[in-house]
Amino acid sequence: MNDPDAGKRAARPRRATVLAVGAISTAAALGAAWWHWRAPSAADGADPAVIAQGREVYARYCASCHGERLEGQPHWQTRRADGRMPAPPHDATGHTWHHPSGVLFTIVKNGVQAYAPPGYQSDMPAFYGVLTDAQIRAVLAYIASNWPEAIRARQAEIERASRQRQ
Ligand code: HEC
Fold first, then answer.
1. d(Cα 17, Cα 5) in Å, to the nearest integer?
2. Secondary structure of the chain: what % helix, strand, coil (to 5)?
3. Residue 147: φ, ψ to 5°
4. How far is the CA of 165 from the centre of ligand 1 (A)?
5. How far away, in angstroms, is 123 Cα from ligand 1 center?
6. For residue 122, what are the CA distances in angstroms to 37, 65, 97, 151, 161?
7. What is the pLDDT along the chain (166 residues), one digit of tens a residue?
């Protein structure tokens, strides 16, 4: 009864339990973070092989207008004399990342007309029948891989918000 060590002995297993629970919840938090990071988003493929494929697609099919380094055409925000818009940058200075990846996918596959008024004229080609869906996803993953982390996070937010609206 009067054993001065009794309290310590009792406390020991409890501390072990606390440590174990702590370790489990840390693991769960890391797991959740990992899942979050891996959560699929067409514009946020983290697979280096996919990004490498996307880089090739970009160089061959997109760079002539959108720029070797995704910088877009000069004065891209000013409509040309022929009424058409120049090609915008795909880097962080453009607005590509303002769109959820489903919208970007549709633009690349079917052209911008899906989101424009009837009869809208654009230089942006539709890649339907030219690129496979996997190539389109790869080129979007490559584009996204050039965005700084903060921009990727914001695009992921836009992505989540658009999924919730569906
Ligand atoms: C012949 C020139 C040309 C080529 C080649 C081209 N684009 Fe474009 N793209 C444009 C133009 C011009 C626009 C702006 C469309 C508009 O506003 O009318 C555009 C717009 C876009 C947009 C919408 C961007 C935004 O911020 O809203 C995406 C996405 C896009 N292009 C992706 C691609 C990808 C990916 C490729 C290659 C597979 C590609 N483009 C090839 C000219 C081109």
1. 19
2. 60, 0, 40
3. -80, 140
4. 26
5. 7
6. 35, 12, 20, 27, 28
7. 455 555 555 555 566 555 555 555 555 554 444 333 334 444 445 799 999 999 999 999 999 999 999 999 999 999 999 999 999 999 999 999 999 999 999 999 999 998 999 999 999 999 999 999 999 999 999 999 999 999 999 999 999 999 888 7
| CB of 132 sitting under 6 A from ligand 1 | no
112 lines ligand 1 (CB under 6 A): yes
**What pTM does this model have?**
0.78
From the CB of 152, is ligand 1 less than 6 Å away?
A: no
62 alpha carbon – ligand 1 mean position (Å): 7
Pocket test for ligand 1, best of 51, 65, 143 (most atoms within 8 A of CB): 65
DSSP 76-101: TTS--TTSPPPPPP-STTSSGGGS-H
107 lines ligand 1 (CB under 6 A): yes
